[in-house]
């Protein structure tokens, strides 16, 4: 038997454990939702900073990408991931995705500066 919530699948009727399991799922999911919100807000803050870096780079005709910094950041993030017991390969993939987006933003900012818009 299921309810309208696809994540809510009760067990046999009449067992008190069903309510406690569902309450624990709800508690954990609420924490996950809070963490997701914090991650989104932290990424937004990070991108505000990287946008400023992009403007500074464009003003001084610096390249959008900085491979040596990116390599240092990957090493640093992998170490942080290991100490946090997070898969370092996952952390690296995430950082590479973020770096690619930052570079794309920096290229857009540089293009605007060349066109007289920065």
UniProtKB/TrEMBL annotation:
EC number: 5.4.99.5
Pfam families, per database record: CM_2 (PF01817)
Species of origin: Streptomyces corynorhini
Enzyme class: isomerase
Stretches assigned to coiled coil: none
Keyword tags: Isomerase
Domain Chorismate mutase as annotated: residue spans: 19-110
GO biological process, one term: chorismate metabolic process
Gene Ontology molecular-function annotations: chorismate mutase activity
Protein's name according to its UniProt entry: Chorismate mutase
NCBIfam families: CM_mono_cladeE (TIGR01795), PRK09239.1 (NF006691)
Gene3D superfamilies given in the database record: Chorismate mutase
Upper lineage: Bacteria, Bacillati, Actinomycetota, Actinomycetes, Kitasatosporales
């Amino acid at each position: 038997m299921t309810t309208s919530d696809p994540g809510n699948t009760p067990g046999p009727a009449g067992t008190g454990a069903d309510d406690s399991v569902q309450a624990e799922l709800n508690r954990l999911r609420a924490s996950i939702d809070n963490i997701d919100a914090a991650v989104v807000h932290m990424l937004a803050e990070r991108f505000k900073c990287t946008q400023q870096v992009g403007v500074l780079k464009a003003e001084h005709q610096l390249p959008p990408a900085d491979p040596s910094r990116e390599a240092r950041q990957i090493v640093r993030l992998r170490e942080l991931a290991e100490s946090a017991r997070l898969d370092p390969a996952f952390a690296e993939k995430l950082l590479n995705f973020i770096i690619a987006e930052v570079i794309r933003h920096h290229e857009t900012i540089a293009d605007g500066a060349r066109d007289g818009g920065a």
